[in-house]
Specification:
By secondary structure, the protein is α/β, with parallel strands linked by helices. It has helices at 16-33, 57-68, 90-100, 113-120, 136-150, 168-179, 196-204, 238-244, 252-255, 284-302, and strands at 46-51, 72-76, 103-108, 125-130, 157-161, 183-187, 209-212, 224-227, 261-263. The chain has two domains: 11-134 and 290-302, Rossmann fold, CATH 3.40.50.1370; 136-288, Rossmann fold (3-Layer(aba) Sandwich). The chain is 38% helix and 14% strand.
Length: 304
């Protein structure tokens, strides 16, 4: 069976079979992503990229993915270069770019924006992050990383660490891991715990999670340490951010004796020491690469 979703808005819209389809197709895309093979399956297609929030890996990997498949991209990486500076509203912008492109990728600071855009344009829409809401394509590349490096996702124990309140990557990832019956631990300061709504949803799905403020509680049995930065830009009060900043720093000494791999959606600030980079633990740059074949698989699946 093929891929039936038109838009990529929330991981909640996916069924397990949809995720497995994309992961399988991503593996076929890897040789193209590495430039070992060439493809023109999206020759003549255009991807509109509307980034109202800063991005490095998501934006550049989408652009790379589209070009690796023979397509091209248009759009903006900051609103200062768009007519938003002249007062143009979001609706008019996306309706216009939707007439130029075969699909849209949008990142915005307001939760729910991508779903709204999907309702007002005629082309497929991909959510590249909406405030503290969802980041479904990051979740898919996270799952792909775990599968490629560790094997069956179902057998894993994943510890989500850091900003679980505002971190959209961990919100999406927890829902996806629940589909695979993965054991989860949540490690965060009390001020940044996973939203109660998410915990309720996970419990309803039959998934129990361990919550702790001490990372040492999970080091002995976690297969994956999924680390996130404390997101300064999401805090209403800068003083609250300063109280929590640097709550966790993972270094090679802390990891000694652990068999876990360390993942991070990036960018990092001070939560992973650079001395982890060249150890067998640090997999975040490999993870960043896997964003290309996964986004290639998604683009191939929704651009007809």
């Amino acid at each position: 069976m093929g891929f039936e979703l038109k838009n990529i808005i929330s991981i909640k819209d996916f069924k397990k079979k949809d995720i497995e389809y994309i992961l399988k197709l991503s593996e076929k895309m890897e040789p193209i992503a590495k430039s070992e093979e060439k493809s023109n399956i999206l020759d003549g297609s255009i991807l509109g990229m509307l980034f109202y929030e800063a991005s490095t890996r998501t934006r550049l990997s989408f652009e790379t993915a589209m070009k690796r498949l023979g397509g091209n991209t248009i759009g903006f990486a900051e609103t200062e270069t768009s007519s938003a500076t002249k007062g143009e509203n979001l609706t008019d912008t996306v309706r216009t770019v939707g007439k130029y492109a075969d699909a849209l990728v949008i990142r915005h600071n307001m939760e729910g924006t991508a779903r709204y855009v999907a309702e007002v344009v005629d082309v497929p829409v991909i959510n590249a992050g909406d405030g503290a809401g969802q980041h479904p394509t990051q979740t898919l590349l996270d799952l792909y990383t775990m599968q490629r490096l560790l094997g069956d996702i179902d057998e894993l124990h994943v510890a989500l660490i850091g900003d679980l309140k505002y971190g959209r990557t961990v919100h999406s990832l927890s829902y996806a891991l629940a589909m695979f019956g993965v054991k989860m631990s949540f490690v965060s300061p009390s001020e940044l715990k996973m939203p109660r709504e998410t915990l309720h949803d996970l419990a309803a799905a039959g998934v129990s999670v361990q919550e702790t403020e001490d990372i040492r509680d999970v080091l002995a049995y976690a297969d994956v340490l999924y680390v996130t930065r404390i997101q300064k830009e999401r805090f209403p009060d800068p003083q609250e951010y300063l109280k929590i900043k640097g709550a966790y720093t993972i270094d090679s000494k802390l990891l000694q004796g652990s068999e876990a791999i360390v993942m991070h959606p990036l960018p990092r600030v001070d939560e992973i020491s650079h001395d982890v980079d060249n150890t067998p633990y640090g997999k975040y740059f490999q993870q960043a690469f896997y964003g290309v074949p996964v986004r290639m698989a998604l683009l191939k699946s929704i651009i007809k």
